[in-house]
Design brief:
This protein has a five-stranded antiparallel β-sheet with strand order 1-16-3-12-13, with no helix packed on it. It has a four-stranded antiparallel β-sheet with strand order 8-9-4-11, with helices on one face. Strands 5, 6, 7 and 10 form a four-stranded antiparallel β-sheet that branches. By secondary structure, it is α+β, with helices and mostly antiparallel strands. α2 runs antiparallel to α4. The two termini are 58 Å apart. It has helices at residues 2-20, 29-82, 172-181, 290-314, 326-336, 372-381, 383-388, 397-408, 417-479, and strands at residues 89-91, 97-101, 111-117, 121-129, 139-149, 152-155, 162-166, 187-193, 196-205, 210-217, 239-241, 246-250, 253-257, 261-263, 269-273, 282-286, 360-362, 368-370. The protein is elongated, with a radius of gyration of 44 Å. It folds into three domains: 47-88 and 289-480, no CATH class; 89-117 and 246-286, no CATH class; 121-241, Immunoglobulin-like, CATH 2.60.40.
């Protein structure tokens, strides 16, 4: 309670002090104290405010440039990953296969393809039941994998058998669910055929993905053995399709595959086999990427010009926010030498090796254009080498632009845009702290002045009271 009384007394005294200022002299001492304190620190506060605004602009300009470089490298990387800048493969007989680039390397030359067999999966149909809800017994079904040839089965030692528990009272539909739940590489469903409900099992493509089905019945609940099948004793009609490998020739060389999707059988190429063409090989050729590369170079040049324009404004010696910024100036120097930079160091000297070989030209003001004639000459002379410059590898157009962005984004290097942003941000934080301290000092000065002026006001008030008393006394004397 005592603390509250003390606080209230202090507050009342302060209000009384403020109210009394100017009562004796007629001057607004509170405003005078405020104005004098403000004038004392105005210059310093203005300098810090101007410094804060400058730092804000510098951070914004550097961040904008860094963001533009990120957008440039991201969009270019996406364009390269699409793959349309490389020669696109084409299969003359589209019924045999579909071809696409795998991205592992740049395919070279043309190829012939002859497919004698497609990869297939085993399909097995069980005996007919009146309905899918019919009971089938209980026990354990076992799937074993390997190769089926006629009446023989050769187990694949690299694939373990899979036991599937069939609970008491299970129906045909329950068996299908149990097989699917085992996730053994065999799927099951119930087919309601004209002869009844049948359990259908489908394996995976490839000769070694064939399978047999064994059954171990529980005593007292037989019937599961009806679903068992193997080629030596089972109904041959139950085997609807046999698991087999794809067989094909590339340039006359024999190959097999457990699936119909072939990746890098031809380096850099993915083939999806869809049909056979025994005795009639089809050609795999590659289209000319000149049109796609020409458009890509025009798009790249336009994007570089956007960055260069912002860079030119930001580093303008008299008005640029980054006129003396080491990161922005480093990026400007990099851009000035970009066209002549060696981006394919492992190629022969007569092959395209720089962006200038792809037509990129740099002007004195820092802008870029495409030399259409030089680009066309490069594409006509060596389209495959030009296309190889647009890959996701360690070298090339994308790697060069990406490396420039990575350098600008290295925060540990003070000579980069990221380093500049970090430095400016730290300075802005320090400026804010200095501004807060000045405000505190200004307020402290104002408070001291208010206290001093209060003393003066009391003295002036006392003097004026004394003067008024004397004047009144003299007036009385004069009257007497």
């Amino acid at each position: 309670m005592e603390t509250t009384d003390t606080t209230s007394t202090a507050a009342s005294a302060t209000r009384a002090l403020i109210t009394s200022l100017g009562a004796g002299s007629g001057i607004d001492m509170a405003s005078l104290a405020r104005d004098l304190a403000t004038a004392q620190f105005a210059a310093k506060i203005d300098r810090l405010a101007a410094r804060s605004e400058t730092l804000d602009r510098q951070i914004s300009a550097a961040s904008n440039l860094k963001s533009m470089m990120f957008s440039l490298t991201t969009s270019l990387g996406e364009r390269v990953r699409i793959g349309d800048l490389a020669p696109q493969p084409d299969v003359a007989n589209g019924a045999v296969a579909q071809a696409s680039l795998s991205g592992s390397s740049q395919p070279q030359g043309n190829y012939s393809l002859e497919v004698s067999a497609l990869a297939s999966a085993q399909t097995l149909a069980g005996p007919a039941y009146a309905a899918a809800t019919d009971p089938v017994g209980a026990g354990t079904l076992t799937l074993r994998f390997g190769t089926i040839a006629g009446a023989s089965f050769t187990a694949d030692t690299e694939q373990s058998g899979v036991d599937i528990a069939i609970a008491s009272g299970s129906t045909l539909a329950d068996v299908a669910s149990a097989i699917n739940g085992a996730d053994a590489g065999v799927t099951a469903y119930i087919a309601d055929t004209t002869t009844g409900s049948r359990l259908v099992l489908k394996g995976e493509d490839g000769a070694t993905s064939g399978f047999i089905l064994e059954a171990a019945e529980d005593v007292g609940e037989p019937g599961l053995a009806n679903l068992a099948w193997q080629p030596s004793t089972g109904d041959p009609a139950s085997l609807k399709t046999t698991a087999a490998d794809a067989a094909f020739q590339i340039d006359g060389l024999n190959f097999t595959s457990s699936g119909n999707t072939l990746t890098d059988i031809v380096p850099g190429l993915t083939l999806e086999l869809t049909g056979t063409n025994v005795g009639a090989p089809t050609a795999i050729t590659f289209g000319n990427p000149a049109e796609a590369i020409t458009q890509a170079m025009q798009d790249l040049t336009a994007a570089l010009n956007e960055v260069a324009s912002e860079l030119r404004i930001a580093t303008e010696p008299k008005s640029g926010d980054l006129a003396r910024d080491s990161g922005a100036l480093a990026l400007k120097r990099t851009f000035s030498s970009l066209a002549g930079t060696l981006i394919m160091p492992n190629t022969a000297e007569d092959e395209p090796r720089t962006l200038s070989d792809l037509g990129l030209t740099t002007h004195r003001d820092g802008s870029f254009t495409v030399d259409a004639e030089r680009l066309a000459a490069t594409l006509e002379r060596d389209p495959e080498a030009a296309a190889a410059m647009f890959t996701n590898g360690l070298h090339g157009v994308y790697a060069t632009i990406d490396n420039i962005f990575r350098r600008t984004n290295t925060i540990s290097d003070p000579g980069t845009l990221a380093g500049s942003i970090d430095r400016y941000t730290e300075q802005l934080s320090k400026t804010g702290e200095d501004q807060a301290k000045l405000v505190e000092r200004q307020e402290a000065l104002r408070t001291r002045m208010v206290a001093r002026f209060a003393v003066s006001e009391r003295r002036i008030g006392a003097a004026r009271s004394t003067l008024a008393f004397l004047e009144n006394q003299i007036a009385v004397w004069n009257k007497d």
